[in-house]
Amino acid sequence: MRDFMPVGNGWRCRCDQRIRLLASRYVRIVTAITVLSSVGEALIMKTKIRSRRLRSRKAAKPSTVPADHKSAFPETMLRQTAGARKAGLACVKRMPAYLQLLRVLQAEGQRHVSGTVLASVHNLESVIVRKDLAMTGAVGTPRIGFGITGLITAIERFLGWDNQTKAVLVGVGSLGTALLGYHGFQNFGFRIVGAFDHDPKIIGKWVHGRKVQGMDQLVPFVRRGEILLGVLTVPASVAQETAELMARAGIKGIWNFTPVKLELPDAVISQKEDLAEGLAVLSHRLHQSH
User: Fold this and answer.
1) Residue 26 belongs to what domain range?
2) CB atoms within 10 A of CB 178
3) Any domain includes 150
4) Does 172 share its domain with 133?
5) Whole-number percent of the chain with pLDDT over 90
6) Is 76 part of a structural domain of the chain?
7) Backbone angles phi, psi at 195, to 5 degrees
8) Interacting residues of 20 by C-beta distance below 8 A, sequence separation 6+
9) How far apart are CA 271 and CA 269, in angstroms?
10) Domain of 246: which CATH number?
11) Which of 62, 148, 176, 195 is deepest in the core (most CB within 10 A)?
């Protein structure tokens, strides 16, 4: 009778409680996984935006640099953004794990690392790792490997993590509050500098170090700060109109956490994250494994 408990005049299987408990845990786990795994897509969006800005600046302002002068910054940055587009999503998603391992090895005092060691992060062939790292411009030495310090710099520059990109978050509900509280974004070159909502009960309150502002302040805030990225965590019923407002304000990339497929101008990039899809995949895989 250990698997049953009394309920009213009968008995109920304790597995019902276990199922509800597991479902609750799944939701929390999937929320965390989605935030971390979707960083790769946000980085691609960020790289595309930066590439567009560089191309537009180059077209608008003729170069005054002599033809025989070699500048380290613009040419390098253009090569990196082009490399990111060529690399594709799978390559970009693997980079944060490489970087995490490199920082651990650096803290341990190691100076070089082989492609084989980095391949263990994703259980890949070392040749795939070498192709990934080639996209960053990093060059290894036979039988020695890659210099850890130089490789960290190359990956950070490739991903755009060598400087901070400002973003605003619109919709300070449960998910929006959780994202505001995630300090790991700063390690990814991503900093949320403003939070906005339409609810008078929330406006004026401080949430994880940001004062929530009303929607009427969004446009001047974005334009004044020249902010390009926005995080959308509003209810589905107002997602489209809110995204349009963000686009009019000057936002060029929207990280969309709503279930709505946004219709935006071609100049605005959007990346959609769906927690329900992640939960479905996790539940299906768990079911298949038992």
Assistant:
1) 4-33+279-288
2) 14
3) yes
4) no
5) 34
6) yes
7) -130, 140
8) none
9) 7
10) 3.40.50.720
11) 195
**Boundary-marking domain end, from 142, 159, 176:** 159
Look at residues 42, 36, 29, 37 and name the one whose alpha carbon lies nearest to residue 279: 29
The residues pairing with 196 across neighbouring beta strands, listed in sequence order, are: 170, 213
Contact 195, 207 (CB under 8 A): yes
Same domain flag for 188 and 204:
yes
pLDDT score, position 158: 86
Cα–chain-centroid distance for residue 203? 26
Beta carbons within 10 angstroms of residue 278's beta carbon: 19
Which domain-ending residue is among 131, 159, 187?
159
**Residues 22, 113: Cα–Cα separation, whole Å:** 40
Closest CA to 251 of 57, 58, 49: 49
Decide if 152 contacts 103 (C-beta within 8 A). yes
Instruction: Work out how many domains the chain is built from and give that number.
Output: 3
262 plus 170 within the same structural domain: yes
What is the chain's length? 290
Where do we find the tokens 């974004």?
185
Please give the structure tokens belonging to residue 125: 């062939």
**Residues 209-256: pLDDT tens digits?**
999 999 999 999 999 999 999 999 999 999 999 999 999 999 999 999
